[in-house]
Amino acid sequence: MSEQKVKRLLFFGAHPDDCDLLCGGTAVQWAAAGHKVKFVSVTSGDTGHQTLSRKETAAVREKEAAASGRVAGIEYQVLDHPCGLEPTTANRYELLRIIRRFAPDVVISHRPCDYHPDHRAAARLVMDTAYIVMVPHYCEDTVLPPVTPIYAYCRDRFEDPRPFRFDAAVCFDGVIEKKLDMLDCHRSQFYEWLPWIEGFRDFDASKMDSAQRREWLKRYLESCRISAAGPDRDALTAIYGEAGKTMVYAETFEQSPYSRHLPLEEFRRFMLP
Ligand SMILES: [Zn+2]
Questions:
Q1: How many domains does the chain divide into?
Q2: How many angstroms does the Cα of residue 1 sit away from the middle of ligand 1?
Q3: Is residue 3 in a domain?
Q4: Measured in angstroms, how far is the CA atom of residue 17 from the centroid of ligand 1?
Q5: Residue 53 maps to which CATH number?
Q6: 3-state secondary structure of 47
Q7: Those residues with Cβ within 8 angstroms of residue 161's Cβ, 6 or more apart along the chain or in another chain
Q8: Cα of 18 from ligand 1 centre, angstroms
Q9: Distance between Cα 110 and ligand 1 center (Å)
Q10: What are 86-119's pLDDT values in tens digits?
Q11: Would you say 153 and 164 are in contact if contact means Cβ atoms under 8 Å apart?
């Protein structure tokens, strides 16, 4: 780490588990290389359970996120906003202060076109800081960061108004087990809530051994298309050359036009651990 500059990555997900799913493999590798990564869940995820109360769910989710952060070796903060997030000025300033204090090189979140209203609100809140992060008269109580951050979107499957663009890709085949360890921390999500809401009403993780639970997590990742198939294969081969043709898992990112902008090749290199 002596020669290479320490890079700082700040990821805002709407719920505890979004950061892990969409950027966990990148975070593990950046952290292992000595870079600084912070995950923030903008909501507490409190509505995401079929039997626990909202208060109980929020308490469980905070512990699960902390455990996942320990696995990855990163800071994982869960804000106490209930689900039903709104892109208010107060919320925007709250995120602005978090961004300035962390002083990231890159800020990543959802795109504003997404099925979930909390994802859309988080995206709007984060992207609405891209310009004002360097405007001194916004949040005068918090000092400006030394470097203007770049902003990027994490992958999604939505095609209206336009599909996600595969600007950069980070293969995480070498740390897939660690990423699964992170997801495994979110038990109330991957083994309880998500199977239930997605219609697997007979799903019972207590009857599964650890290998079966692992397989379930892997299948879930693949169902979210967080694997190197389809259009991200082109991005992988552009970045990794021949090796990109056989990679299995990748997290992909699109640079936002609202912030300081890197040339494509530079952004691709920047996102690599
Ligand atoms: Zn979410």
A1: 1
A2: 34
A3: no
A4: 7
A5: 3.40.50.10320
A6: coil
A7: 113
A8: 5
A9: 9
A10: 999 999 999 999 999 999 999 999 999 999 999 9
A11: yes
